[in-house]
Amino acid sequence: MEQQWILHLKNISYNYPDGTLALDNLHVKIPKGQRIVFLGPNGSGKSTTFLHMNGVLKPQKGEVYYEGQKLSHKESKDLWRKVGIIFQDADTQLFSTSVYQEISFGPKNLGLSNEEVKKKVVEAMEATDVSKLQHKPVHFLSGGEKKRVSIADILAMDTEIILLDEPTISLDPKHATELMEILEELHKKGKTLIISTHDVNFAYSWGDYFYIMKEGKVLLEGSYQEVFKQQTLLKEANLEVPWILEIYYDLLEKGKIKAPYPPRNKQELLKYL
Ligand SMILES: Nc1ncnc2c1ncn2[C@@H]1O[C@H](COP(=O)(O)OP(=O)(O)OP(=O)(O)O)[C@@H](O)[C@H]1O
Ligand SMILES: [Mg+2]
């Protein structure tokens, strides 16, 4: 079957008003229903790419396609209905007075009935463990609580694509694990999930397809087998080799294991031993 691209950024370049060239002829295709990871050093353009994928920024050069349809600037304004974004900095995203109002804002804007809005908000609050905070003003929340509310915002909108820009930053281990469970559920429902992260170990075990960025361009892309064997290029993007792979290569070299393919997680590695 031919691969379906739900989103396609074609030859996108973008200069910020101060003249910084943040994206330099960027080419990105997002396969529908998959888990996509963006990796790359600070300032390589991951967040700017995400802002183009949900229409916050309009390309100065190049085109955006959604399900094969080229979007005009006017149409790309409506991308937020299909593509939810959890911002890297929760303060950029949150603005209403109480947590409940904040989370209800998105589904209300989508035109859902009051009853549907309430149902979506309650479900999103339960999933992110913020129900107890629902009457609290957003600006009194801790960093991690704000992050969870910003995740609830997007869950309540139930968009086809969810962009998560550094989602585990400021989450404690319990809530980071809960987020992973939420992502697993969303993946099972067929949602397309796109994450930017500096956590190479998580990315390696989680992603179906990888984009490695450097200086506003794609340095490397592909499946985990294709991308993580390119150790010189990974180093060029300031990325570490995932610890599972490091141990795997070490054991392979010493002849201690005969594994047909690199293990994806701790369980697979242990099976080889
Ligand atoms: N509002 C802005 N005005 C001017 N330059 C900006 C602005 N936002 C980002 N940039 C610049 O654009 C480039 C890409 O930034 P971007 O935030 O997309 O990188 P990133 O890969 O998300 O980095 P990080 O890992 O630090 O989140 C950087 O050089 C940055 O300094
Ligand atoms: Mg960023």
TrEMBL record:
Topology versus the membrane: Peripheral membrane protein
Pfam family, one: ABC_tran
Function of the protein: Part of an ABC transporter complex. Responsible for energy coupling to the transport system.
One GO biological process term: cobalt ion transport
Presence of the UniProt keyword Transport in the record: yes
Top-rank taxon: Bacteria
ABC transporter domain segment(s): 7-240
A GO MF term: ATP hydrolysis activity
Residue ranges of the TM segments: none
Protein name: ABC transporter ATP-binding protein
